[in-house]
Amino acid sequence: MTTTQTSAAASARAEWRAIAICLFITIGAFQFGFDSSYYSGILVMEPFIKAYGHYDSATGGYVLSSSIQSLTSSIINVGEIAGALSSFLVDDIIGRRGGLFVSSAFVVAGVIFQVAADNLALLIIGRLCLGYAVGLISCLVPLYVADCAPARFRGALVSMYQFGVGMGLLLGVIVDNATKDRLDTGSYRIPMAIQLVFPLVLVPGLIFLAPESPRWLLSKGKTEQARSALQRLHGNRPDLIESEILHITQLIEEERLVEGSWKDLLVWNADGRKAYLGMALQAWQQASGINFITSYGIVFFETIGITNSFLIQIGLYLVAMPAVWLNQYTVERFGRRAMLLISTVLVAIILLIVGGAGTATVKSLTLDRTIVAMVYIFMCVFNLALGPAVWVVTSEISTGPNRSKLMATSTGTNWFCSWMVTFTFPYLFNTDSAGLSAKVGFIYGTLMVAAAVWVFFFLPETSGRTLEEIHVMFQQGVPARKFKTYKLNDMAVQAALDDKEKPHVTEIDNC
Hints:
Layout: H1 3-14, H2 16-25, H3 28-42, H4 46-52, E1 54-56, E2 61-63, H5 66-116, H6 120-148, H7 154-179, H8 186-194, H9 197-208, H10 214-219, H11 223-234, H12 238-257, H13 270-287, H14 290-294, H15 297-303, H16 309-333, H17 336-357, H18 365-386, H19 388-397, H20 403-429, H21 440-458, H22 467-475, H23 491-500, H24 505-510
Helix pairs in contact: 2-6, 3-6, 3-7, 3-8, 5-6, 5-8, 5-9, 5-20, 6-7, 6-20, 7-8, 7-16, 7-19, 11-12, 13-19, 13-20, 13-21, 15-16, 16-18, 17-18, 17-21
């Protein structure tokens, strides 16, 4: 075993409490994944189609129009946008942990509305409530983990958000597969009701296990509560805890010298650049068309003639899991920027192949299998970096007095672009509209080519840096290509960082 590996194991043993708490908090990501995948399944269930579709005399059966598919699938993204954009207010008033209590309450309300719905209006209200909960979760979970995770494991632990999403996606399809043959409304109401499990698990853990973010507590002048929170995270290590309190307090005082505002995000300065990078990165993630797989995957497979679409979808989420786990290593070993560049290039190639397959005039089993294989590979390479690493980078560049605002705007962009993909896909794909079918791969593939170019020229490398170092480099206007090797040359700033980072020096040197 190498010295680095030994050091990593020793660090993990010393910080097992903080690691365990961060892992637990990522349970919130299950909610997002489950809702995306279970809803894709119920769109092809006969009881749901009868409840919300219309009778088509041409086919002699009930069908869901493109407009109903689009509205009911994408309306959750409207709630997610609202949740993400308001997360900074919720965070400022009641904290990261407090915001997760609020998200749990909205999950419960959303489930009740959806299960009880006997008309489209109630279904939409339920979807909006769930969307608001997911919007809060998507901002507050990465922020909480970035605050509380040991510096050495921060990238890997933030990446676990995507793993939670992936597990939720898998669970949603498994539940759908178990209820799809029911002839009553239980076929879709049971998957809706299952979502109550997530707040029932998360809330007790928030009460008895997870403390509030020490950074947030110290920003509100709650020093004793912050000390208790740090003790729960790090154990009975008085020297480390007092050093952390001093370190975080000094940082907060420095941030208060420059009062944060929304205006800072609208001009090209350090925070304006952070806002641009975070929003662009989240937009590129959704430009991959990932939502056409998670929101319409089963519909997609059935439309192109694939049988056993539910089992195909289960397999799709299973094969993605190893890539998510591999990301925990690669994002730290090779860096965020390099892995994102590899991921976007591979996704672009795969999507263009799918688009090319869609141009075939004669359909065949071999062609269908080729498309399915490409979608499987797509999920693997997407989760290798483009899925999880985006959340890592946006949480890391959201530093300084506008941290919550930066995270809110970048995540809000994600949900807005997610809504655009979810809303437009039925109109692009279905035969009652544009009828592109698999040729939609050309659209998303071209966007991914542009994404790869953008990552190469504009995305800075943040691995191996503390949040404070990242903040200073943005203030100094360090070009993206120099982030990885840049030496902080402002001696006063460097001295301050050295004083504050003493508990973390070993971790940084060994990354």
